[in-house]
Amino acid sequence: MLAFDSSDTPPTTEPAIKKPSHGSESYLALVWRRLRRSWTGMAGLILVGLLLIMAIFADFFAPMDPKATDVGFAPPQVMSFHDKDGNFVFQPRVYALSDSEELDPVTFQPIVGMDYDNPRLLGFFVKGAEYKLLGLIPADRHFFGSTDGQPVHFLGTDKFGRDVLSRAIIGSRISLTIALTVVFIVTLIGTTVGMVSGYFGGTFDVWLQRFVELVLAFPQLPLYLALTSLIPVTAPTNVFLAFVIIVMSALGWAQMSREVRGKTLALARIDYVRAAMAVGATDRRIILQHIFPNVMSHVIVAVTLAIPSVVLLESFLGFLGFAVKPPLISWGLMLQDTATYSVIGSYPWILSPVGFVLVTVFAFNALGDGLRDAVDPY
């Protein structure tokens, strides 16, 4: 009889079960992984990041002092890689603007031409107008501009000869500050009111919702104009800016609270919330630990979609003269120069702030659309 040798048989090994790599990922990791698959969401995220960096370091990115004056209504200077003889050169340059003795037959303004005998070389991290970085650190370096510190106007100048590009970059700080501050206040008040109203319900919810409906019933635009017109012209700029933010916030929180209330009413009937009530958890704990995390996904998306609305509202009110006042700069205030068709037809480059508004609205809407799909990874 042959003896059985266990060494003659190959060992049997069970194949290891490989778990999905994302099985133990957190909720935020799942949201980020799904957001990366959306090219519109990532494009919006990148643009939002660039806009915020530009607003924070606006003085550094602005090539000129936004208050410095030059030739009024000068056209944009085109960057060129050729000298006056048409030869290719590696260092880009622009040509200075000069007034001629001829007058425009429509506007009767001196015709502005290029002075090809005085090129201005361009470069990065050049010296220019002095400023305080973040309002604290004295500096004179700018991200780009002329190497000799001479004025350059990539988007032309306004009627006072101020550089449009520099003013638009500086104006992003005010416009985005108003939008982010208003949305923060609206989100804080609206989320709190909505969760409390939806959770407690009953008579408290009925009366609170009647107040919300009263706020929603106000015609917002006439009320904006009426309230902002109450501020004296001689009021300090900070007071005027704070009043504009308060008015926008006071009229914008009601819609957010109504949306959060609807989510809270649905969450209050879920089993784990009822179980927390049964074991004696306090109302504060249930709201903060069980309801608030579940409404945050909706709130985040609502915030990214509300910021463009506030930017557009600020631009509209600024165009009408009911938002910020000089010496502050905002995109809406810059658009006041476009009030007449004759100006737009003769000097179309003063519409440049519209491009900044469009990019901002697209960036936040694209990010909000990507987040709306990513907040539910399952």
Automatic annotation (TrEMBL):
Q: Does the keyword Cell membrane apply?
A: yes
Location within or outside the cell: Cell membrane
Q: Where exactly are the transmembrane stretches of this chain?
A: 39-62, 176-201, 221-254, 299-324, 344-364
Q: How does it sit in the membrane?
A: Multi-pass membrane protein
Ranges of Polar residues compositional bias?
1-11
| Keywords assigned by UniProt, alphabetized | Cell membrane, Membrane, Peptide transport, Protein transport, Transmembrane, Transmembrane helix, Transport
Question: What name appears for this protein in its UniProt entry?
Answer: ABC transporter permease
